[in-house]
Amino acid sequence: MQETCPACGFRIAHPLYHPEPQPLAALNLPRSGEAAREALRFPMDFHVCAFCGHIFNRQFDYYRIPYEEDSNLMYNRGALWQDHMGRLVDLLVDEYDMRGKTLVDIGCGDGLFFQKLLQRAPECRCVGFEPGIEADNARRAGLEVYKDYFHPQRDLKRLRPDVLVCRHVIEHLQCPRDLVGEIAYWCNRYELAPLFLAEVPRIDNAIEQGRLSDFLYEHVSNFTDYSFRTLFETTGYDVLELAPCYGDEVLVALVRPRLEPRLAAIGRSTATFRQRIAEQLREVGRQLDALVEQGRSVAFWGATGKGAAFLNAFGVDGRRFPVVVDSDEQKAGRFVPGTGQEIRPPDYLRDHPADVIVITTRWRAKDIFDEIRRRQVRCDEALVLEAGRLQPYLGEDAWANEPSLRIEGPHPGGLKPASRRRAGRLV
Ligand SMILES: [Zn+2]
């Protein structure tokens, strides 16, 4: 079941065309009349994405199609079709100066496109990927072909292509955003910015002319100009050119992955965080053990939400650390999920002072610290998690420099802008 739009990921869609289940239209052609009449039928329920206009079969299931058993070749010997491919070859060789470069064709079929390209620019290295039986034909034609799917992480690294070609493949994929998004991602990781020539059938004419014959089970996706553009723009590409070709019946896009330092930064900060939390768990665990060994009484302030997450993450069990308070007195008498301490109101600490108060909710540390002072709760020190360990709370410059929120016009209730903002943040 295809719940979201394959092109943009949007969930709302309008019903468009819901025929009886249909046989495969191009693949596994039956070898007898009887077999044809008894051919397996597949559910078709085409919807239009309410955001980008993409048309897709909600009932599509890629794994029900026996691609490995038969050829999926489209008939491509027509004269005008040959001309169309010739123009694409000219575009790559002349306009984008791809002589002598490395090109990869994802789903190259029998390799006809690269045969044409090599006739124009024999010094190019052309590598095809084709998991179907057409790969054998392409090899017989002398092309360098892997009988396999294209794996962006593996194949971009080893081939470092200048051009990617992917023609009449994307409309068959259950999750085209996965393929094009992964290509953009791994190009970023390997600092590659290949030209990417993508081609799909164009559905706009079929919609305008009310054609039903364009809807095939094999085509889960039916691209419009806008949905094809959206597919690339929302998965990390700059669209250089996008145009209807071959009598406006196909769409050709020339796109390039955007190289964004952000992607590498996300990877680095994630690795750093993972390393830091491993160290932090060890260090805070050691500090808590030391407090117990020293015989100091410890209370934890902040019992639910991020407080509960803190207590659970650091193994603050009720046996060693029975005292947990919370600023919200309505939570008193309930228990901390996971670790089991009864939640006490703040004034509990006035009657049962602790040597050490650990503030569990770092983002509310200043408020809690102010509350400890206001309620005249005694303790030797108030600790907070800072730079990977529990440290005495020293106040925060950030609050002193809190910018005021500029609000034009009168302020209802006479509140100053800064107060309004602060009240909003804490609710
Ligand atoms: Zn969409």
Give an account of the 3D structure:
- By secondary structure, the chain is α/β, with parallel strands linked by helices.
- The protein has 3 domains: 52 residues, no CATH class; 191 residues, Rossmann fold (3-Layer(aba) Sandwich), CATH 3.40.50.150; 121 residues, NAD(P)-binding Rossmann-like Domain (Rossmann fold, 3-Layer(aba) Sandwich), CATH 3.40.50.720.
- Strands 8-7-6-9-10-13-12 form a 7-stranded mixed β-sheet, sandwiched between helices.
- Strand 4 and strand 5 form a beta hairpin.
- Helix 2 packs across helix 3 and helix 5 crosses helix 6.
- The longest helix has 33 residues.
- The radius of gyration is 32 Å and the shape is elongated.
- The C terminus is likely disordered.
- The structure holds zinc ion.
- Zinc ion (ZN) binds next to loops.
Name its key features.
427 residues, alpha/beta, Rossmann fold, 3 domains, seven-stranded mixed sheet, six-stranded mixed sheet, 14 helices, disordered C terminus, binds zinc ion
